[in-house]
Amino acid sequence: MKINPVYKKELRIGVRTIKTALIILGYNGLLALFGLFAFYATFEYGSRYGGTVNYAKVLELYAIIAAVEFGLVLFTVPALTAGSISGEREKQTLDILLTSKLTPMQVILGKLASSISIMILLAFSSLPIISLVFSIGGVTFLDLLEFMALIIITAIYIGSIGIFFSCLFKKTTAATVSTYGALLFLTLGTFFIIAAIVILKDMKAAALVTQTDYIRKSPDAGYWILILLVNPAMTCFSMIENQIGTGSRLVTFLREFGVTSDWIESNWFFISAAIQGVLSLIFIYFSSRLLNPLKEKRRFKKKD
């Protein structure tokens, strides 16, 4: 099997250091802390002070563990990918890497694959913690596979953004700050855009109200609500809502603040995952363009 040399080299270096072991320990330790606390609050505390145990809350336990793990993915991936190319540039090894037979796309894919491999390793190492809910029931093996797919898709999505900024900026600090800024915009900024549109429409509607108008329809963001399809947190929320059987809350939110179709509402997870996959390919493509050393030569030839 032909393996990308950059991926092979990064993977060998990564697994041989104590840093990887400490990341796995800290990741699963923090996840286990949240999971065991939620398990205690759901069952032990409820039976001791409430006198009964509500086994239906096991789905809430799964939602908490899944949300915490997803949050850790969002927090970890930018740190793993933002310095992948800029770090090579700071160590003055990037030029040597580019003079090899590897194409810029192969370098990008190798760096991205090595970072994503660590996240996949973390995700699979956390399976015993997530499997706590299987001791009670309510979550199927298919749900678990869907959650693993979400982790991989999100890791590639955020990782491609980190790689892009790592190629765009020469310093790792600037690339890391930009990646976290982009992540903050995707997760919170999209909600602020929807809120701003609703507020502006409400102000405009209020200005047009006359004395004879007694009923005024509550404004919404219209089709701008679809911008949330690029929000990875919204994708995770839609998956959890569908798995635990409370998907009506997602539908209520979308219909209250925007305009969507029934097909989009029922397939929000798959549509958003597909869009984020396409965006990942776009970021990877432009990253390879930024890394291409022949780009500058072509520019100078055009000037001449």
Automatic annotation (TrEMBL):
A Gene Ontology cellular-component term: plasma membrane
Listed GO MF terms: ABC-type transporter activity
Alphabetized UniProt keyword annotations: Membrane, Transmembrane, Transmembrane helix
Origin: domain of life: Bacteria
Chain ranges passing through the membrane: 21-41, 61-81, 116-137, 144-165, 177-200, 268-291
One Pfam family per UniProt: ABC2_membrane_2
Coiled coil regions, renumbered to chain: none
PANTHER family per the UniProt record, alphabetical: ABC TRANSPORTER PERMEASE, HYPOTHETICAL MEMBRANE PROTEIN, CONSERVED
Protein name as catalogued: ABC-2 family transporter protein
Organism of provenance: Anaerocolumna aminovalerica
